[in-house]
């Protein structure tokens, strides 16, 4: 039954259970309403660190930009990211110096 329940939003434990109208985490004792769990999505970088708005990240692989000859090189720092529900699985909105505004996948960045 725990397969259908969302993981704990506080500690990400997968062993949550229902207790009347609430969901409960047995590992950290966090209690929350099921509606809250639906609103919370945790976006993680390439190594599993949770990301949030305003973070600084570095690119972990070269990225060719469609329709252009520009390339975002490995190690490029991207400051002040915004997490969005973008096109496909692009979930980071940012500005890269020398290139401009674009969206990135969280799987190609690492939190600094």
From TrEMBL:
Domain Protein YjdM C-terminal: from-to ranges: 43-112
Cross-referenced InterPro entries: YjdM, YjdM_C, YjdM_N
Pfam families on file: YjdM, Zn_Ribbon_YjdM
Domain Protein YjdM N-terminal: 5-33
Superkingdom field: Bacteria
NCBIfam families per UniProt: phnA
Protein family according to the UniProt entry: Belongs to the YjdM family.
PANTHER family from the UniProt entry: PROTEIN YJDM, PROTEIN YJDM-RELATED
This protein's name: Alkylphosphonate utilization protein
Organism, scientific name: Lentzea indica
């Amino acid at each position: 039954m725990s397969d259908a329940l969302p993981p704990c939003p506080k500690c990400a434990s997968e062993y949550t259970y229902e207790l009347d109208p609430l969901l409960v985490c047995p590992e950290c004792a966090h209690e929350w309403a099921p509606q809250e769990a639906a609103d919370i999505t945790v976006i993680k970088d390439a190594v599993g660190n949770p990301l949030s708005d305003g973070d600084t990240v570095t690119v972990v692989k070269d990225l060719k930009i469609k329709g252009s000859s520009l390339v975002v090189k490995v190690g490029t720092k991207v400051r002040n990211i915004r997490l969005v529900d973008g096109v496909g699985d692009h979930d980071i909105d940012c500005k890269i110096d020398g290139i401009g505004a674009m969206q990135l996948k969280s799987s190609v960045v690492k939190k600094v």
